[in-house]
């Protein structure tokens, strides 16, 4: 990626493209300025005062995830693996999003916690809270760096600036509106960015399909390309997992991705949960991830399909795709991460190119802003206020939230260079999720449904689960374990989940649990059923606002998509 601008791969943008980009950046900064006028307390800055409607938080929920993973990472997978990549959506996202809305949001929102780590403190005490807070903060800085690196790579290709200059400029833009308006600015910009992304990538998909002769033309070209027909069927996905065995591949996808990684990410990741917690009511909070699931089902058609098209029409991939599949370095300097940029270069005319570039920038900005806003909240409330300065006036924490945004951005600039060493950014991010999210999900799910789980089990299971995932990854890098592709993260996540459960059960049986009265609202069996039911009165009335019904519709459509593809 570092040499793309020097390898004659520049995007030939015209003045009209630059005008479109300038207008977009002014609009983004304007939203940040307007949101600043609504910020009068730390709760406004860090949680939007819990005042936003479900449709806004629902679109922000899915847009916050439309960063490096969704756009560049999934299109890179489209080049290398094809349709098996849809598992990251229909198996690896939708079921967990529905579970979050139906089962877990009543606990998060009903307990009035300000973050996921704060829920950990109430359930397990300060040691587990501190372990979770620190690990989450570290993860957000690393993931923000990945989004920032890809954002800077677009600037690098567009203007030919050195990568470090591109990274600093890109970081400054995101910092400006996030520091101005806090979570509200991030969320309203995420809604804008969602529509910009769709408007940018949908025409690219359509033009690309026309270029290859429609769907059948794409099928024919992919069949005759390196990787062959395995790229045209989602199951069993051997090429994606790298296991070389149909049964193990399906098991890895269903358990490693569909259960551990997916539920670990969507149900415990505060980046996503924070959007739902900004809703103005319990009903709106429950509907947030379910509303987000509707567009989430369709995202593969505008990120994976263009990647597949790029693999059979972009000259660099026609020559070097086989090398990339074998894990080698392409002589042209391209990686799978460049798929959308190169497809835009070859297919889109000026004017449309500017919109498409804005869409890419929007996706990375949405992802990075989500990382920064969640980092702000966890650092301010869960680390600084809890362990450093406990009883300061609210204005102190508001100023701290803005200041720490600057610090987080500087740290993300550093981690952007770590991300630059990965040829497939999705592999890098899935590894991070297996380290941080998989063990956290094990701790959460066991603690929520087993009242006997103790505070000591909370922190020890989490710490040893994380350590086991890092160990599996290290052994695979040292080639002690014969794992390749994204199967590494599936195995690491499954190991972390299993180790966390075993350690948590063993420690719980050897230590004293908390009294039942202390766990009301934190454990499913001890929480009154009425507090978990949907309130269908007032502004929550109407069949189309029932979380259970909406979730059922999403589930039926998702099952149908899995059968068709």
What does this entry look like structurally?
With 565 residues, this protein is mainly α. It has one domain (15-416, 427-564): Sodium/glucose cotransporter, CATH 1.20.1730.10. The protein contains 23 helices and no strands. Helix 1 (15-36) packs across helix 9, helix 12 (246-268) crosses helix 20 (425-449) and helix 18 packs across helix 19. The longest helix has 50 residues, at 163-212. The radius of gyration is 23 Å and the shape is globular. It starts with 14 loop residues before the first helix and ends with a helix. Residues 1-7 have low confidence and may be disordered. It is found in: Membrane. Pfam families: SSF. One of its GO terms (molecular function) is D-glucose:sodium symporter activity. It comes from Amycolatopsis panacis.
Q: Please tally the helical runs, counting DSSP H or I stretches of 4 or more residues.
A: 23
CATH topology: Sodium/glucose cotransporter
- Tell me which oligomeric state these chains represent: single chain
In CATH, what is the homologous superfamily? Sodium/glucose cotransporter
Instruction: Report the major sheet.
Output: none
Q: Assign an overall shape.
A: globular
Q: In CATH terms, what is the architecture?
A: Up-down Bundle
Terminal CA distance reads 32 Å
Helix/strand order, N-terminal first? HHHHHHHHHHHHHHHHHHHHHHH
Derived from helix and strand composition plus strand pairing, the structural class reads: mainly alpha
